[in-house]
């Protein structure tokens, strides 16, 4: 027990045995200031900023998409967006909003106002087909690219386009090939994968 007490007591300067050396590491703040000054002097920060700007521009021009095959055989699928509430949902005053096990379908609360058109902007045939479809009088939809250069196509078409980054929405809806049209029918979404002529 005495040994334990000896290790537990605070160490005083008089207890140090051996030579004591001064700290020789540079001051971190001074070192950072010197590095920034050196970067400013040789144009390193401007180069770094230009590289970041260029990387951001390249990302915006061609964001990461999904490589979905072109529709070879037409297919129709259905997607039910319903969820089952895993636990009681209550408001801030403790009143029950939805009990655990309740099935909620967002389409019962808010309808899909437009159909969605998923297509690959790297495929000229899909782009031409999408452009012709959207030029029709009855078209009320939202074009969504799964791959390609969205800003280039926006400039050409002079309209806003959406981009499904990394194909997350297509994956969620179960879209396996493009082009694909998604529209609401009742309380489900109908997904038609269309063959481009």
Q: Can you give keywords for this protein?
A:
197 residues; alpha+beta; six-stranded mixed sheet; two-stranded antiparallel sheet
Q: What would you say this structure looks like, in words?
A:
Helix content is 36%, strand content 21%. It is built from seven helices and ten strands. The longest helix has 18 residues, at 44-61. It is flat, with a radius of gyration of 30 Å. The N and C termini lie far apart (89 Å). The model has no long low-confidence stretch (mean pLDDT 88).
Brief overview:
This protein is α+β, with helices and mostly antiparallel strands and 197 residues long. 36% of the residues lie in helices and 21% in strands.
Bin the strand percentage: 15-25%
Order of helices and strands: HHHEEEEEHEHEHEHEE
Give, in spatial order, the strands making up the sheet with the most strands: 1-10-9-6-7-8
Mean pLDDT metric: 88
Uncertain runs are none
Intertermini distance: 89 Å
Our count of helices gives 7
Share of helix, binned: 25-40%
Determine Rg (CA atoms, Å).
30 Å
Global morphology: flat
Alpha-beta classification: alpha+beta
Please describe the topology of this protein.
Layout lengths: L1 H7 L19 H15 L1 H18 L13 E5 L3 E2 L4 E2 L5 E3 L4 E2 L1 H4 L5 E6 L3 H12 L5 E7 L2 H8 L4 E2 L4 H6 L6 E6 L2 E6 L4
Parallel strand pairs: 6-7, 7-8
Antiparallel strand pairs: 1-10, 2-5, 3-4, 6-9, 9-10
